[in-house]
Design brief:
Keywords: Membrane, Transmembrane, Transmembrane helix. InterPro entries: DUF4845 (IPR032314). Pfam families: DUF4845. There is one protein chain. The protein is built from two helices and five strands; from the N terminus they run H-H-E-E-E-E-E. Strands 1-2-5 form a three-stranded antiparallel sheet. Strands 3-4 form a two-stranded antiparallel ribbon. Helix 1 packs across helix 2. The longest helix has 40 residues. The protein is elongated.
Length: 123
């Protein structure tokens, strides 16, 4: 009896390769957006948990964030887009935003970050 080898054909190979290329393209396009978001949340967590000598003010918090944005080169969101206000509990930092990036041809990806909301507590 003659053994016949059966492997993957050309059409499945092209489909698998196309799928891998599409996922790799999406990953390459979205990774910088997520890296910027992780940097932003780390900065805001540090500012929110920082020990202060006096009660925080929105201007003081904005100044702290501005310096860290320059140091860490955060470009996904500008300081103007971040809402900083007073609340009963302290200073509220609202950095929720969404980012749009082109993927392929006329297809864009929109990534929304809704959990970037922090409170700098009063003393």
């Amino acid at each position: 009896m003659k053994a016949k080898q059966a492997g993957i054909g050309m059409i499945p190979t092209v489909l698998i390769l196309g799928t891998v290329i599409i996922f790799a393209t999406v990953g390459v396009k979205l990774m910088p957006i997520y890296v910027d978001y992780w940097t932003l949340t780390r900065i805001l967590e540090d500012v929110a948990s920082e020990e202060r000598d006096s009660d925080p003010t929105p201007a003081g918090v904005r100044r702290d964030i501005s310096g860290r944005f320059l140091t860490n080169r955060v470009e996904a969101i500008s300081l103007r887009d971040i809402k900083i206000s007073n609340d009963k509990k302290g200073v509220v930092i609202d950095a929720r935003y969404e980012k749009r990036t082109p993927l392929i041809f006329n297809i864009d990806a929109v990534v929304r970050f809704d959990d970037a909301l922090y409170v700098v507590p009063r003393r």
